[in-house]
Amino acid sequence: MLAIRLLGSPQVLSAGQPLSLTRRKSRAVLYYLAAYPQPVARSQLLALLWPDHSAATARHNLRTTIYHLRQMLGDDLQLDSEWLALAEGVDVDTRALVAWLHRPNPDDAALAAALARYQGDFLTGFDLPDAQEFEDWITVERERYRRLAINGFATLSRRREQAGDFPAALAALQQALAIDPFQEDLQRAALRLHYLAGDRAGAIRRYEELVRLLDEEMGVPPMAETRSLYDAIITDTLPRPEPAAQPPAQPPAAESPAAAPALPAAAPAYAPATVEPVTPFVGRAAELQ
Predict the structure, then answer these.
(1) CA distance 171 to 181
(2) Any idea what the CATH number is for the domain that residue 164 is in?
(3) Full-model pTM
(4) Which class for 52: exposed (0-12), middle (13-18), buried (19 or more C-beta within 10 A)?
(5) Among 120, 74, 81, 95, which Cα is nearest to 31's?
(6) For 177-197, how does the pLDDT look when each residue is reduced to its tens digit (9 = 90+)?
(7) Domain interval for residue 159
């Protein structure tokens, strides 16, 4: 089975073993095909990867690239005269991440498993300096997956907090902040979770680190909401949430004939990611001028 990892340092695995693709343009074509579940037009690849070549030279380069990919991938690369695509069974981490994060109401374990696919920035360490449009595409996709992962970790953190598991909620939030520590709303949530988990000293250390980060990188102090939260923490006046009400006990159900075991749920279909933009500088217009 072919597996392609685009999140973090890119990898191509065949039956669990690394597959070496020495040609940089071959890797670029494969990564681009992997990122899209729909077939990709040859004309799109020509414009993306060989924009400064003549049409004849660009088509020759693409044919050569496709030949080398077919030698390595076999039937996992599907093509006709106009389109290229990867076979349906190829496992791509970005597709799996997006599919599971768009699944309606996944349980916490499924959400955590999906987020485990995020091993770092999209195509970390890979570039194509002679193809600016490809570089621009990497930049856009990299930011898209960062926002998707941040929102996913924040959602997981809220669920765990609602369940009263403050250390687990904080752990999820720390993964979001490892991607982008300038999300001050998430920093406030982390301060609160430190406190609720009984780690007041950890909350103080986090605030001091945030002060240093904002001063060094942006030349601004924490927002008023953050300073107010910190004051409540150091004075022990931060309200604690009420414990969740327990549902009333239900009488035991009458015995009934054993039901047939449920079939496993089908894997979710891919849906394009639509991530709400995160705006860390909201409320700072005057400070940043």
Answers:
(1) 14
(2) 1.25.40.10
(3) 0.80
(4) exposed
(5) 95
(6) 999 999 999 999 999 999 999
(7) 94-240+272-281
